[in-house]
Amino acid sequence: MAFSKIATGGVDGGVGDSLRPNAKPLIINGNCAVSQRGTAATDESSGGYYRVDMMYFANTSMGEGRLQQETLTSGNAFNNGFTKAWRVDCAVADASPAAGDKMYLQYNFEGQDLQVFKKGTANAEKFTLAFWVKSNKTGTGNIQLKDKDNSNRQCTQSYTISSANTWEHKVCVFGADTTGAFGNDNGKSLNINWWLDSGTDSDSGTANHGTWEAQDQTKVNAGGTLNIQDNTANDWAITGIQLEVGEYTSSTLPPFQHESYGDNLRRCLRYYYRANGRCGFGAGTGFVQDGAVKGYIYHTMPVPPRTEMSFSLSGTSAAILSIDGNAGDDVQSIGATHADSFPYKDYEFNFVTDGSSITDKCGMGIRINASNYIEGSAEL
Asked: Around Cβ 338, how many Cβ atoms within 10 Å?
């Protein structure tokens, strides 16, 4: 019996295309359903993780992008099971970018999740990237795979938006690379960059699509014509992102692996965690130490994070300590240390308050105000 490849490097044993492997999809939150940082549009002039989980917005002096998690109610992507998307609108235009200006959407991978591509070996596999995209502009967009483990080796590919304001499905194939293995660890090994706009430093070269080569910034957006930042009327949105092992066409591509929202969220929590909206944060003890009123709470994370998280409070008085069931004091700062060995699932939180109602070893809990939050990041 002949076996054929299916998504995530598995094989179809002849039972049929409806059978999917047990492996999770390589792209986390590819349907853009999880957005722990909120859904409303915000204007951003610098790089960072905003709105949809796992999606990094890169912006170097390209005006401002208005970012949001878009809700879909119609169109081709909606008809194929997608109700959310990552969207950027041009909020502040940069119609004449300087040479080094650039803007793109980035997705990052841990090396240990990419071993199935066998990169850097004689049996290296091709990469097939598929996604739904929509823009008010037609033209050519560019995508760059960037190997962070091997001197930023790169492979580029292009796609074409044919119809304005229409969800279109794109399938892009990137070559196999027998040079440079991905690290088998939790470090950043690969970027996928969807280029949205750039200056001449990134688009003055001649593209060599589909072939891995040494880093050459001039090629990454060569021939790109979307130029999303040239007018505030422009927008670009994406959803249904999937990465498959091997070469596929639009007719042979395996179906998108839809996960439950809960499973999707748990995978995102490995990288980012937010507790908000009057969330109970556990119990602990409180006392006065070094002239400061402090409360300590031992908290178990919902999932083990990728690495030790850094925590912050969204603002002064964003949370209060409840002392022996009574109203407590505003929290002024928060500190955290892992209280367990790797993978740091348990943390000890140190809350410093502005009052004096905590006494030695009193019972207490933390309550986060409705519009505020505690967040932890272990992003790549």
From this structure: 17
Please state the pTM of the whole predicted model.
0.91
Q: Give the CA distances from residue 80 to residues 77, 237, 256, 258, in Å, rounded to whole numbers and listed in that order.
A: 5, 16, 9, 11
Q: What percent of the chain has pLDDT over 70?
A: 80
Rounded-to-integer distance, Cα 112 and Cα 241, Å: 20
The alpha-carbon radius of gyration of the chain (Å, integer) is: 23
Domain ranges in the chain? 4-14+24-269, 272-377
Q: With contact defined as beta carbons under 8 Å apart, do 48 and 64 qualify?
A: no
Pick the closest to residue 54 from 288, 269, 277 (CA basis).
Answer: 269
Buried-exposed string 138-152: b where 16+ CB fall within 10 A, e elsewhere:
eeebbbbbbbbbbee
Instruction: Please name the CATH architecture into which domain 4-14+24-269 falls.
Output: Sandwich (2.60)
DSSP letter (8 states) at residue 253: P
Query: pLDDT digit string (tens) for 18-43?
Result: 444 557 999 999 999 999 999 999 99
* Rounded distance between C-alpha atoms, residue 230 and residue 234, angstroms: 8
